[in-house]
Specification:
The chain is α/β, with parallel strands linked by helices and about 260 residues long. It is built from 10 helices and 6 strands; from the N terminus they run H-H-H-E-H-E-H-E-H-H-E-H-H-E-H-E. It has 2 domains: about 50 residues, no CATH class; about 200 residues, TIM Barrel (Alpha-Beta Barrel), CATH 3.20.20.70.
């Protein structure tokens, strides 16, 4: 096992990690040492013992989806039983419940519905923003934007500008999974790595912010995870538009991949 202290010393002195360095840290079991170095870096950027959080809620506006992801237990193919599309009234009811509990925003995503064009999303955002002007609409994801592009024949930047004008506050980083097509093509028919990254560039170009995600444990290995992290970092170097990075492990229950 490689000694990781030289890597941590390099980072603490202000140098950047290479892909090789990142691999070594991901392979290391010395979590305490890595955590101590991470905490020191964090305190340099935000030297306070105070951390913050928000109160929000997830709303899935539809489970209808025209792609197949073997890791997903949520989607239903168009025309199949158990499909739904929530009305705007139902979404408003859930927003009002969130506000009553002190919430300041919602994370709203859905399946890739084959009939929802740009106007459908604009109407949804305009209606909600007009009724709740100070409520943060943190909505959609790169696969959803790519789906709008295919249906409405519009480029990503045009779509993001129109959604921003309709009331979109920011965008989640959903659909990232592992940003390496060797993995993606085995488990999903949704947007490619390059398309996901290009949507995020468009999001940031129009002045919106977004998060980035990684779901691992879907047949990926450490080299795939390192490539994913490098690609996220490259976009951040270019745009500065990511506000958070959220990783999680594959949840296998009720999925084809889990079986």
């Amino acid at each position: 096992m490689r000694d990781i202290q030289p890597i941590l010393d390099k980072v603490l002195s202000g140098e950047r990690m290479t892909g090789e360095d990142c691999t070594a840290l991901l392979e290391s079991y010395d979590i305490a040492k890595i955590g101590a170095a991470a905490h020191e870096i964090r305190m340099r950027h935000n030297p306070t013992d105070v951390v913050t959080y928000i109160i929000d809620r997830n709303i899935n506006y539809t489970n209808v989806c025209n792609v197949v992801c073997t890791f997903c237990a949520f989607y239903r193919r168009p025309g199949k039983p158990e499909t739904y599309v929530h009305s705007i009234e139902e979404i408003e009811k859930r927003i009002e419940e969130t506000i009553a509990l002190g919430g300041t925003g919602v994370l709203m995503q859905g399946g890739l519905h084959p009939d929802f064009n740009i106007e459908w999303y604009e109407n949804l955002l305009q209606t909600l923003h007009a009724k709740y002007p100070n409520f943060q609409l943190h909505c959609f994801s790169p696969p959803e934007i790519h789906n709008i592009s295919l249906i409405s024949k519009l480029d990503y930047e045009t779509i993001m500008r129109r959604l921003k004008n309709a009331g979109l506050y920011s965008m989640p980083g959903g659909g990232g999974e592992i940003l390496d097509d060797e993995v993606r093509k085995r488990v999903s028919t949704k947007c490619s790595t390059q398309e996901w990254l290009d949507v995020m560039r468009a999001v940031h170009k129009v002045g919106l912010r977004s998060t980035a995600t990684m779901m691992f444990g879907i047949g990926d290995n450490i080299s795939h995870r390192v490539k994913h992290l490098q690609r996220i970092r490259d976009v951040q170097d270019e745009t500065g538009g990511f506000t958070a990075f959220i990783p999680w492990t594959f949840q296998r229950e009720n999925t084809a991949l889990g079986r």
